[in-house]
Amino acid sequence: MSSRGRFITLEGGEGVGKSTNLAWVADHLMDRGLEVVRTREPGGTPRAEAIRQLLLDPADDEPLDVDAELLLVFAARAQHLARVVCPALARGAWVVCDRFTDATFAYQGGGRGIPARRIAELESFVQQGLQPDLTLLLDMPMEAAQRRLEGRLGRDGGARDRFERERGEFFQAVRRAYLARAAEDPHRIAVVDADRPLGQVQAELSRLLDNCLESWR
Ligand SMILES: Nc1ncnc2c1ncn2[C@@H]1O[C@H](COP(=O)(O)OP(=O)(O)O)[C@@H](O)[C@H]1O
Ligand SMILES: [Mg+2]
User: Which terminus has fewer CB within 10 Å in the chain: N or C?
Assistant: First the structure.
């Protein structure tokens, strides 16, 4: 195994099972004796989590400008990379992250309509070439994911955040943008059909992870 850790991201729209499977992926890797750091974006450090609150706050007294939204996402990312992700990878830990820059291309690009080349400029500025080693894109039809999300919101007594309040066409655009990215980079991004019982989803995740563990050895 190389001395640098590996960077694995989970992606997909609301309710596809990212948080559920993040914990499972981390446990799967720890069972194989790896040091694993579990984290999420936007957020992952106290200051980056404060930026997350700004991004998710549904207060409608002041609409958030789309470019301001994009820059906040990358500001949180810069802080998270500097404080958590890069130090962990450097010491040989594996980092498993709930969302990363593919989400920016999907939400701020596909959803908000910001040109991909502008996002790519910020990506290279902030990431300096760092990319996930493996991205697990959980994909399913939006309507089914929305039903799951409603189940979760019902149990949490949770109010919808600024993104969860978006309309169906926003989420369709997010899904299309995710799938387009996967088609452009099929070696890094594995599309997993998330509209199946959890056991089947995790059996596929297990296969994908074990293949990578084998090929990275
Ligand atoms: N494969 C699955 N089948 C049925 N329900 C699922 C599955 N995966 C996740 N869920 C449930 O769907 C809801 C949303 O999952 P969650 O992991 O919170 O999604 P995300 O983090 O992508 O928004 C949760 O209530 C979770 O228990
Ligand atoms: Mg989640």
Answer: C
Tens digits of residue pLDDT in 48-83 = 999 999 999 998 789 999 999 999 999 999 999 999
Residue with tokens 């998330």: 194
Which amino acid is it at 92? G
Q: By residue range, what is the domain housing residue 104?
A: 7-216
Residue that is written with structure tokens 């943008």 in the block: 177
Ligand 1 centroid to 189 CA: how many Å?
Answer: 20
Query: Ligand 1 centre and the CA of 159: distance in Å?
Result: 17
- 62 in a known ligand binding site: no
Domain count, the chain: 1
Q: CATH code at 170? A: 3.40.50.300
Contact indicator for 75, 125 with CB cutoff of 8 Å: no
**Each residue of 137-159: pLDDT tens digit?**
999 999 999 999 888 878 887 78
Residue 1 lies in a domain: no
Ligand nearest to the CA of 148: 1
pTM over 0.85: yes
